[in-house]
Amino acid sequence: MRSTTIGNSLSVPVFAAITALCIAPLVILFVYSFFSVNFVAIIKDPSFKNYIRIAGSSTYRWLIFKAFLSGAGIATVTAIIGYPVAWFIAKRVTVYKSALLTLLLVPLYTGDLVRIFAWRILLGAEGVLNSLLIWMGLVEKPISALLFSPLATHIVLAYNYLPFMVIGLWLAFEALDDRLLEAAQDLGAGSRSAFLRVTMPLTMPGLIAGSLMVFVMVVGDYLTPQLLGGASGITIISAINDLFGTAFDWPLGSAIAWTMLTILALFFALAAIVISRSTLGKALVGGEA
Prior knowledge:
This protein is mainly alpha-helical and 289 residues long. The chain is 74% helix and 2% strand.
């Protein structure tokens, strides 16, 4: 009884902090999304005008679609790269597993700006890559498309968030019982059949978890498109930033933010349903495998 009371007492500051720092700002954003702006004054007359404006604006619809398209694309690329890497670390490395995982996370120890400017040095007109290509005689002049372009943005986004995909997949591979693969082979399954019927379904929760982490972080990334995207660096996140800054249209910015949150919540709900119906998901929630 006493331990329960102590636990409840210790949980109060945690719930208070979550409420004040996470839930309350979202509630304020939600309320503001129904207001409007008249020059520099916020008109507190609730309506759906901002949401109607978003739905009717081809610019906002395209920016939202582009954000989710980039998120899905980077999640796909990191999954293709990260799947064999995670398998190798989990199933083929024994002695230096911790060292490899630490090495994988080393880039995250530096700040976003450090990594972005390092890539600008690599991809710039007089950068390492262009200089190497010219020195090898493969090109006569620097390739301008390597920097300040969608290509540069997506290369760096994939580099930044690949570790999160690998970690999610690595955990799934660590939980994969090798005896299941041996049993499948004993029953006559080939390598491809065992992968599609055993390995892939059992590692699907890790793949979905890693994809969601990458997807959300790419959609919400602000610095990378701004510093590497050039003219293509305008994103829905930068639009929200401008609405809360120079444009002073907090209600419209709040409505766009809540639109993004709603779409992301739908993705998370769908992923939760898929994971909960998987074998590993049922085991995690205490259901029948």
